[in-house]
User: What shape does this take?
Amino acid sequence: MKVRVSDGATDEEASAIAEALAQHVRDEVEVYVGDADAPAVVREAPAGPPNAGAEAAAEAIAQSDDLGPTEREEQLWDEIEDIELGGPEKYKDRLEEQGKLFVRDRLDLWFGEDGLLFEDGKFANFDAWHPDSPEVEEGNDDRLPGDGLLTGAAEFEGRELHFMANDFTVKAGSMAEKGVEKFLRMQQRALKNGKPVLYLMDSSGGRIDQQTGFFANREGIGKYYYNHSMLSGAVPQICVLYGPCIAGAAYTPVFADFTIMVRDMSAMAIASPRMVQMVTGEDIELEELGGPDVHAQKSGSADLVADDEEHARELVADLVSYLPDSADEKPPKTEGKPPLKSPAGIDSVVPQEPNKGYDMTDVIDRVVDDESYFELKPEYGKEIITAFARIDGRPVGIVANQPAQRAGAIFPDAAEKAAEFIWTCDAYEIPLLYLCDTPGFMAGSQVEEDAILEKGKKFIYATSSATVPKQTVVVRKAYGAGIYAMGGPAYDPESVIGLPSGEIAIMGPEAAINAVYARKLSEIADDEERAKKEQELREEYREDIDVHRMASEVVIDDIVPPSTLRKELKNRFAFYEGIEKDLPDKKHGTIL
Assistant: This one.
């Protein structure tokens, strides 16, 4: 074996290399220094078994190799450095005025120095904008690095994921042919390797003056939403909005499983205020049209609102701690913690009177692990709580009526919110905990116009179709179809347990007595006697719907002392952790 080393190698180094290689290859080794025709050292093949010569040889060769990058690589580094500067400087200067980070600084915030694993498509559209390209006219400063879109892979909070991020300094983060291609490749790779996707959105929409080749094509922007649909329920998709995402750009946030908007910075709308004025004549500011308050409080399209960029990252870090990497995995467990408040206080928190308000989070704080409560859509459909939490380290999705809001009656927006949350939990194998205290679905002309039946149907459908372990607690009242939507006995929960304050009925005592005995009571002339009779009828009715009667008739599985509720749920979720449920053999249901 012949080996040539650099001219500067000493006799000792040449000898060490020859000795190490001879030990490794078990053959004669000749070591030549520089351009010498004769070997400086010759070593015969040693007798006996091989030793650690390979490592010594590699180290010796590395020490003697003084080769380095050529001018060609240095030029490439210069090109990369130029690309990473982003768009024209004047647009970068405006970012600070807008209170937001340059996209590469944003990636540093999210992933740190070592967290960005690789980037794809950095040179996208390079020939169309780089000053050294023969295609670029002299004096043209219309920079398009990366075509305004960054894609790649990163490590975030110990989890590997795909990411995309708009560069707002390039044509306001607008989407064009090469950027669209990068976006699609990222999504398609996520479909193949089953890792989460993080969308860091700051886009004004499609680049209208360059729409040929990417708008309606088979592999154009329209394919974004096809891929979103295919990824839905396969891997978690999380979107954070940093700017005005208009038209096509606004669909990615609503297709994502979870959407976070940044206050005083982000917005999303089907059309810009200027376009709205052209089409409808309405004069409206972007904040009023599609700002965080609109989508967090009225449309329900935003799950959370962050105060700033750092807060957005913190929210997503908390969120992913409850989610698996894909639907094929179980959600991650942690070490359990005692609850924030003592379970011994649950019975004192829940009033005996069915119409008296209280805050359901006070019950939740006495059941779940401390610092694990993570509510989604807190400003939308407030009469139902949807939240992630942990019980003894095990993630659960909580669907709870909130008697402190509208007496816990279920309105259309709350029904839709609950249905979507249940559907998402079921997709990612997160068990469900229902805490029921509701007079049922709201009645009246307004809720009918707002589609209470249609949205209530979706709530019941989601509960019916969920195959994850489900535990239902009748905390107090469970009236009307509310008990159906809230995982009642007919909806295949693993258990339905009641607290001693519980009641299950078609309707509450007041409404029932009025419906059945109104005429009979009206015939009693004396007010005092009529009131006494009405109270007697209510008490009789309540005996029939009391949780003890339900347990006696085995409608529910058990009544538990409220102070043991956390332990009871901990044991039941652990026991049924591996349960498997089958749905009917069909393509899919027709209820969305």
